[in-house]
Amino acid sequence: MLAQQILNGLTLGGIYALIAVGYTMVYGIIQLINFAHGEIYMLGAFLALTALTALHLPFPVALLFGVACCALLGVAVDAVAYRPLRRAPRLSALITAIGVSIFLQNLARILWGARTKSFPDEVIPALFKATFVVGDVTVTALQVFILAVVLALMLTLRWIVLRTKMGRAMRACAQDLTCAQLMGVDVNRVVSFTFALGSALGAVAGVLIGVYYNAVYPLMGYRAGIKAFAAAVLGGIGNIPGAIAGAFILGAAEALGAAYVSSLYRDGIAYAIMILFILFKPTGIFGQRRETKV
After folding, report:
1. I want to staple 28 with a disulfide (CB 3.0 to 4.6 A). Which of 41, 213, 238, 244 is the partner?
2. The whole model's pTM is what?
């Protein structure tokens, strides 16, 4: 029972990790909590579902379609909503982020309706439905696929950040945005790339969780977004490895709490963990204090 719940928690944690790194990358560079990020995750699921059912695309192509659309949407949201407020007070950008989140929620309701949508059996690869038993643990092929995709994407993200020219620019902007700009870094291009990368990862998470629970609805981004934000806070907002670690810890805590306490409190567990860390360790597990000279 314990091992089964740990596996379920790792699967959820992997999904939260894909969303949490989007929050933490944007915050690390421009000090903005992009509350619309959860809605990007939701739209990724809806766009992939539409590609599967209306355009009759195979699953891998539909997944890439949703990812590409959400990457472009992330860039557009930054250019239209956030870039004009780059030098404005943080409260202005925060209110704008909440406004964009509400707008995207209602846009999804207009386009797809308020009811929960499901992936038809014929569009889901048959391999995902396979199950096998390891000891007392029942493992589904879909869980293995989700964890493999998460691992591959996290390794790819690490390579981008540490080994590419754009990754060096991202790290420079995260360390000192003004200094990076003075050294010739195109800050707007770096921020746009960061939004595209984070949105693409969020879209992948949306498709995977939509297939995992076989449910897609307009408000799914709000709940998952809050939990991923809690994971980013838990690990240390602005720290990518911390966000990933925090996501897996949160996923495991949620699964164990639902199994041994009550499934009614699984959302409350995420909020409680976030509140406790804000109160007693606001920098998170891997976060560091920053002194600001005035």
Report:
1. 238
2. 0.93
